[in-house]
Write a structure and sequence with these properties.
There is one protein chain. This protein has nine helices and 15 strands. It has 306 residues and is α+β, with helices and mostly antiparallel strands. Helix 2 packs across helix 3 and helix 6 packs across helix 7. The chain is globular and about 55 Å long. The two termini are 18 Å apart.
Length: 306
Amino acid sequence: MSRRVVLIINPASANGKTGQEWPGLVAEAQRLGVRVEERITEAAGHATELAREASMAGADVVVAVGGDGTVHEVVNGLVGPGGQPFGNAALGVIARGTGRDFIRSHNIPTKAAEAIRAIAEGPIGNIDVGELIATDDPEGGRRFANAASCGVTGAIALRANQMSKRLGGTPTFLIAAFQGFRGYTNTPVHVELDGRPMDVTASAIVCAIGHSLGGGIKVAHGARQDDGLLDMVLVGDVGAKDLALNLHRLYTGTLGEHPQITHVKGVEVKVSGATPLQIEADGELAGTTPSTFRCLPGALRLVTAS
């Protein structure tokens, strides 16, 4: 029996190109024999509502057509607090954004035709998602598909979200990163990893499910999406000069060799301190610390390529 597929289309993704090209994506799906229903997002957060409605109404696959932000919203429409599912739909992705970090961590094709074919007949398995409970988060708690972090990375996300993405995900992130580091003051933070306390001066704490962020930066080299654990990467007291000297480490998977980088695994990470730190989740602004990041093992069903 063929799958019931619902596309959640963000027309603003890919710098607005998706709004022009999505009819062609639907036509390609029909050419491949995939019956699809279309839902068009109209505002921030709308993809979450549409995904939840589709899953609860019996969709087999709900597809995020957009960037990592669209994936983030759709995941929150499929998985609720504590990993409670909304319906039984699996996530599919047709990547239309600039960063594409979620599909980098999974066996999801980059080309639309191949992604549609996988959505129609690819295997479905369970992967982990993260959960974030943060201060002043307008969502009051959310799930993240790829990574969430706080500190200078939150400041970088704020800058990146205000920039045009026409240069692509990686250049945009790097420009925002240098600007963010130059204007950021590292602060003392208190971190608890599964109850074990650490007091450090840090520029960022990253809690990752996937292995990359910022358009391909291998921040958590070797991370797995099915081990039931977060990969916590603690970036110590570093600044813009250190970033410039270690650019090669960002893309070669050797970031963990830097003496100011600590990479450990755990189920739950709590972050607090005298100074509230900006948080981002899958590149979306998500409140401030104090905050709790935790892993929800196997909470998301995902369609991948055969």
